Amino acid sequence: EKCIRRVQKTRELNSFITETLDIARSQASESQARQLSGSSLGILDGVPVAVKDNFSTLGVQTSCASAILKGYVPPYNATMVQRLLDQGAVMMGKTNLDEFAMGSGSLDSVYGPVRNPWKYTFQNYEANKQDDLNKQSLRFSNKGNSANHKNNIQSESIKNSDSTNGQNGSSGIPEDMDVSDTRSEECDWYVSGGSSGGSAVAVATGTAFAALGSDTGGSVRIPASYCGVVGFKPTYSLLSRYGLIPLVNSLDVPGILTKTVDDTVIMLNVLAGHDVHDSTTMTDPYKPVLAVDFPEKISLKGLHIGIPKEYHAPGLASDVLSAWDKAADLFEAHGATVSEVSLPHTRFSIVCYSILCACEVSSNMARYDGIEFGHRAQNADASTEALYAASRHEGFNDVVRGRILAGNYFLLNKNYDTYFIQAQKVRKLISEDFACVFSVGVDVLLTPTTLTGAPKYSWYKREDNRTRTEQQDVFTQPINMAGLPAVSVPASLSDEGVPIGLQFIGPMFSEQKLLTVARWFE
Ligand code: GLN
């Protein structure tokens, strides 16, 4: 009930496309009945979760934030959703995103933009309550008291919820706050990051204890960084994509957003492992990641942290650089070896990603023709062709249409080698950069997640800043190209007082070590 109230009170942030509060209530009472009758409980029994609206959900609209899928109700659950439900999770709703997960800001949704709760001036929200919302785990926070942060988080985490019913603990949103009214458009606010912005906001505001996102080039890690939560992108093939509506099949992975690394471990162990419905999932049995009970006892002796020099990229903000430097110093001071490494092909990653993404998009989007799913244009009966064209024109936004056109161009016979094949080769070089660094004994790479803290909406929307916003993926896209696991952990506050995340990257299937290092840092 407490999480439901938070959903109602934070509607202004637009984090949910579809609220499933009735479903949540009945799942919660089933869970309560199981608890009362003493029957065996799932690890997530009674825990409120949120699901990005590009995961298929049985009987619940799955729109990808696009007009073309408005009203589409899948006849089955994505494997990730089913695994959560099988463990007793309570589904609060489907979260908002950039249309078909194309974007880094969660602004390009047919349902409107997602707003970051940090420094957000809610209507009827007393200024002195604002800090409560902002209590997260921030290593280098110069604001607030870190012991308080910890207490607040622990009471809010799955792991420390003794009855696992999600009702204990203090709220990020004060109980008496009412923010259900809509604000005037002129007011500025911080961008939530994307494309899993709705999921990041759902976790940051405490409407859900964990959320599913998808990460193709940074879509879980970027909003996690902007909203001050943990965002984890697992090794490609560890989590099933069955029922996740594809953006770029060779890069997409389901991702996890939580408040703490411990909670990410709990979620990962529920979700990971082979799925008969997804032939790209790992076939070896999944070895669960062990949670760290005493982070203070973790020894960093022998740990080798790499700092990629190319990540000192143009546009890196000084406050992000300072958080990054401080983190490196902290590891060194506690016995880790920290050294500079080189990933020379990093600078090609944005352009390489753009080509590969457009090519796969042009193929994936062909299924939306106005015949089988969602939106069908009216009065387009001149021919089947005209029906396709009109439905697709009305159904897709300009970002999606632009990528379909670009992909078709890159895949033309005359362009195929110059663009698509060339981009595949560059992708291989980017992967080899990482393999090379890990082969000489580096355990984990430490980088910023984004170039800056969350930008303001007014800044992000300005036309001349559009290409700059595309650069925000520079630290996240190479990881998808190499299929590696990476996690963004809240580290600090920007000069403007919004969160800054740092990213840890490990070799394929190094989840145990990666999340242990992240837990130590948190
Ligand atoms: N920003 C990138 C894009 O627009 C990545 C998005 C994602 O990870 N889904 O394609």
Automatic annotation (TrEMBL):
**Can you tell me where the transmembrane regions are?**
none
Looking at the UniProt record for this protein, which Gene Ontology cellular component terms does it annotate, in alphabetical order?
glutamyl-tRNA(Gln) amidotransferase complex; mitochondrion
- In this protein, the active site sits at K52, S195, S219
- Which reaction(s) does the protein catalyse, per the Swiss-Prot or TrEMBL entry? L-glutamyl-tRNA(Gln) + L-glutamine + ATP + H2O = L-glutaminyl-tRNA(Gln) + L-glutamate + ADP + phosphate + H(+)
Q: Which UniProt keywords apply?
A: ATP-binding, Ligase, Mitochondrion, Nucleotide-binding, Protein biosynthesis
Please give the residue ranges the record annotates as the region Disordered. 139-179
Report the family membership: Belongs to the amidase family. GatA subfamily.
Report the protein name in the record.
Answer: Glutamyl-tRNA(Gln) amidotransferase subunit A, mitochondrial
Q: What is the source species?
A: Lingula anatina
